[in-house]
Amino acid sequence: MARYDSLSAQNDTLHKQLASVTAQAAKVGDLSESSLAAMQDPSTDTQVQELQQVIQHVKREADLLRGQHELLKRENARITGDVRRLTSELELTRQRLSEASNIFRNKLAQLIDFIPTGA
Fold first, then answer.
1. Fewest Cβ atoms nearer than 10 Å: which of 78, 104, 111, 119?
2. 42-114 and 2-29 helices cross at what angle (nearest 10)?
């Protein structure tokens, strides 16, 4: 269960990071191509190039986070399946143990009844 909790916490963190990156990308995306083209002085070209580099970096990070999120979702699904299977096996084992215990009690009672009472 600790591994599941850890993965769940990581999944939540990745969701938050993805939301943050998405918000940042949306802010950057608000700059239209026409407004960027309107800025023609050399200092603005450098700023535009830096901004484009930042956008490319954010896109790469977003793709990476999407991939990690997908992997964590698959891992979560696998672990959830394992938990269900193990819970079912545990319940079956408990039932078998209870049945074996009842059989043992019945046989013990029969043996006690079979022992002569000193009369």
1. 119
2. 160
Q: Is the pTM of this model over 0.85?
A: no
CA angle at 113 for the pair 110 and 119, rounded to the nearest 5°: 165
Interval 56-76: pLDDT, tens: 999 999 999 999 999 999 999
Tokens read off for 53? 């580099």
Q: Which residues contact 51 (CB under 8 A, 6 or more apart)?
A: 28, 31, 36
What's the DSSP call for residue 117? -
Q: What's the Cα-to-Cα distance from 34 to each of 37, 38, 40, 46, rounded to whole Å?
A: 5, 6, 11, 17
E strands present in 20-69: none
